[in-house]
Amino acid sequence: MEELDAFPISSEKKKYILESVNPILEDMVVEVIQRVPGDPVPFMLEWLEKRRVQEEDKQLSPEERTRLETDNARLEEEKTRVKMQMREVAKYVAEHAAANNDQEEDDDDEEDEAPPDFFDKPRNLKARQSVSAEAYGEWNTKKMFVPAVVSKTEEQTQRLRQCLRQSILFSSLDERDMWHVIGAMKEVTVAEKTRVINQGDDGDFLFVVEKGELDCIILGDEGATRL
After folding, report:
1. Is this prediction's pTM over 0.70?
2. Which residues lie below 8 Å from residue 128, measured CB to CB, with a gap of 6+?
3. Distance (Å, rounded) from C-alpha 79 to C-alpha 85?
4. Which of 20, 147, 149, 181 is deepest in the core (most CB within 10 A)?
C-alpha cells in the first residue's frame, strides 16, 4: 500500500483500489499489450463488458446456467433459420431484379426497331468511312441495379445503424449490405394505439422498432391471440 500513501485518501479506499480495482486493470493492460489494438478505447470497453459478463456468470446457480444455455442454443437455431430465410429472400430479390432488367431490355429493343417504311427509302450506297458508336451501342447497354436511397440526417443514420446491429436479422450483414439497408429505410413516428399493419396485408415492408413496443394480434378460428 506504500505506493498509495502519497494520495490523501482513506485506508478503506486504498484497500479497495488494491484489492478490487488493480487486479482488473492489470489483467486489462496485459490483454491490451498482447493484442496491441489500433484504437485501445473500444477494445478496453469490450474487454470490461466481457469481464462483467464472466463475473455475473459466476453468480449463476446450476439451474440458471442450464436455462441460459438452453435459451442460447434456441436463439442460435433461430438465428440460423433466419439467415437461411434472408438468403432465400436475397436470392428471390436478385432473380426478380434480373427478370425486370431483361424485360426492360426487351422493351428497349422493341422501341429501337426501325419504322416500317425505313427500308423503302432510297439509301446512299456509297461506302461509309465510319460508324456512329452511339447509334449502335447505347440501346444494348445493361442497366445496373440501383438500390433505393431515402434521404436522412447523419444522426438518423447512426441511430438506424445502432438499432440494426442489435437485430438478429441484420447483425451479420457486412458494411456494404448494411449501408444499402440503412439507405432504403425510412424513419416513421406513429401515435399510440395506431395500427401499422393488418393481418392479410401484403408483406412488402419490414418494421424495425427503435423505441416503444408493438402488440402483435393474430385472428384465428378460436379468436384473437396476442403474441
Report:
1. no
2. none
3. 10
4. 181
